[in-house]
Amino acid sequence: MKPTDLCVSLPLGVVLPFLAACDGPPPPATTERIEVRGTAIVTLRNDFTSGLVDWSVVDGVWERRSLGGEHRLAQTSTDRAFPVVLLEGRRFSDVDVTVRFRPVSGEADASAGIVFRAHDGQNYYVVRANSLEDNFRLYAVVDGDRRQIAGTRIDAPRLGEWHTLRVTAVGSRIQAYLGGRLLIDHRDERFREGLVGLWTKADAVTEFDDLEIGGVPSD
To answer: Dihedral (C-alpha) 69, 74, 108, 87: value to the nearest 10 degrees?
Structure first.
C-alpha cells in the first residue's frame, strides 16, 4: 500500500504529510458559518448566456447548452482525468462561491466540483459531490496530484436533478455546503489566493448554471 492510500481522521486544522484525510462526521449544527467581509468585496454572476467568455479551458470539453431559452455550461468529455475550466481575470483571497449543477451521466464517475484559490490548472482546491458515491469531499491538488483533505458521508445527489454546491474560504478556514447544508469545516494553509473554476472527473457529463462569486480581490 502506498502512503497516499492511507487516511486518518484529523481534528480541524491538523495536517500530516503523506496521509490523506478520511471521511468524518459533518460539523455540528452549532458551527459558526464563516463569511467574506470587507469593503473591497467584488461580486460576479454568470448564467452562461455568453458561453465561455473570460474562461480558460484547462482540460475537457466545455460548451454552452441552450434549452427553452435557458443556458448552462456543460462538460461533455468522457475520457479525461480531471476536466477543469478557470474564470480568468480575477483572483480572490477570501471567497464565497455557489453554483447549481446537474449530473447528467457517468459510469466511472458523476462528479461536479468548484475549484477555488487556483494558482493554475495543476494547483488548487476543489470541493466536489459525486452522484455515484455516498461522500462529499474537499481536495488539494498540488502539481496535478490530488489529495483528499476533508470529507463526510452523505446521500449521493441524484443523477438528472439540479443541486446546489457552495464553498466559503476565509483565511485558512474552508467551509463547504451541499443543498444548503454545511458538511465540511476545515483549515488548510496550502493556497491563500487564486482563480475560481469548475471541475468534473473521468466520464462525468455535468451541467452547471447560476454561478455566483463574492470575494476579496488579490490582484
So the answer is: -150
CA distance 43 to 54: 15
- Banded pLDDT at 82 (limits 50, 70, 90): very high
The model's pLDDT over 13-66, given as tens digits with 9 standing for 90+, comes to 555 544 567 899 999 999 999 999 988 999 999 999 988 989 999 999 999 999
Quote the CA–CA distance of 92 and 96 in Å, as a whole number: 10
Whether the model pTM is above 0.85: yes
How high is the pLDDT of residue 209?
97
DSSP state of 78: S
Residues 175 and 150: beta-carbon distance below 8 Å: no
CB 184 within 8 A of CB 21: no
Q: Name residue 66's beta-bridge partners.
A: 71
* Residues 205, 72: Cα–Cα separation, whole Å: 13
Distance CA 213, CA 21 (A): 27
| Residue 50 Rama label (left phi>0; alpha psi -120 to 50; beta) | alpha
CA 137 – CA 150 distance, rounded (Å): 6
**Residue 159: other Cβ atoms inside 10 A:** 13
